Amino acid sequence: QLQLVESGGGSVQPGGSLKLSCASSGSTLSRYAIGWFRQTPGKERARLSCINSYGSHSDYVEHVKGRFTISRDNAKNTVYLQMNNLEPEDTGVYYCAAGSCLDSWLSAPFAYFGQGTQVTVSS
């Protein structure tokens, strides 16, 4: 069974950068399209980005386009989320999960969420 572990969160000032990692144990990550999500208190987990299993296609929601970059290294069984020009609104717990990166990814089911990593953007 796929088990995902997120890491790389922390506290940064507005305008700063962080790079999150999503590593797998158990099953090989290269079989799965992966998505990144963010959850803030009192809100549902929101989709941010996805990448297909080969790393040849990715997509983003509008408010992170140009600031976030998703990538993967299948040899290392890891997917990354590079986040630049962070804003206070980016604060939350970030999760990765396996699902889809087809045109319908914004409504596709995702599974195997990790425990999340906290990102705090504050001056």
Walkthrough of the structure:
By secondary structure, this protein is mostly beta strands. The chain contains no helices and ten strands. The radius of gyration is 13 Å and the shape is globular. The protein starts with a strand and ends with a strand.
SSE succession: EEEEEEEEEE
Averaged pLDDT, please? Answer: 95
What is the topology, as strand order, of the major beta sheet? 2-10-9-4-5-6
Tell me the number of helical segments per DSSP (H or I, 4 or more residues long).
0
Keywords:
mainly beta; 6-stranded mixed sheet; 4-stranded antiparallel sheet
What is this structure's SSE topology?
Blueprint: E1 2-7, E2 10-12, E3 18-26, E4 33-39, E5 46-51, E6 58-60, E7 68-73, E8 78-83, E9 92-99, E10 117-121
Parallel strand pairs: 2-10
Antiparallel strand pairs: 1-3, 3-8, 4-5, 4-9, 5-6, 7-8, 9-10
In brief, what are we looking at here?
0% of the residues lie in helices and 48% in strands.
